[in-house]
Amino acid sequence: MFQKVFYIGKLRPLPQHKVIQILRNNGFQEIRSGRHITFKKTGADGKVWTTWVPHHNEVTIFVIKYIIKQTGKPREEFE
After folding, report:
1. What is the domain partition of the chain in residue ranges?
2. Beta-bridge partners for 54
3. Which fold has domain 17-78?
4. C-alpha angle with apex 41: 79 to 31, nearest 5 degrees?
């Protein structure tokens, strides 16, 4: 029998501009910039997605996982 093998890429810290680019490419718009940059998107069904990106040169893996959870985007987009 054959076994299915799935490759799961490894998350790594990303530059802030890359994370912002991924969010903008997925329809998120910057709504506020304070201690963090806040992004918002309203889906076709009326559901509102909100997340934030810190003002750091590099975004940590912990924060990237949090953004993935908040936005519902696939992990692969951030690998």
Report:
1. 17-78
2. 36
3. Metal Transport, Frataxin; Chain A (3.30.920)
4. 100
Q: Which residue has 């992990």 as its token pair? A: 75
pLDDT confidence of residue 76? 87
Structure tokens at 65: 């996982």
Query: pTM to 2 decimals?
Result: 0.82
Which has more confidence, 79 or 21?
21
- Enumerate the β-bridge partners of residue 36: 54
User: Closest Cα to residue 53, out of 70, 39, 65, 41?
Assistant: 39
* C-alpha gyration radius of the chain: 14
Q: pLDDT per residue over 41-75, tens digit each?
A: 998 899 999 999 999 999 999 999 999 999 988 88
Distance between CA 23 and CA 21 in Å, rounded? 5
Q: Is 2 helix (H, G, I), strand (E, B) or coil?
A: coil
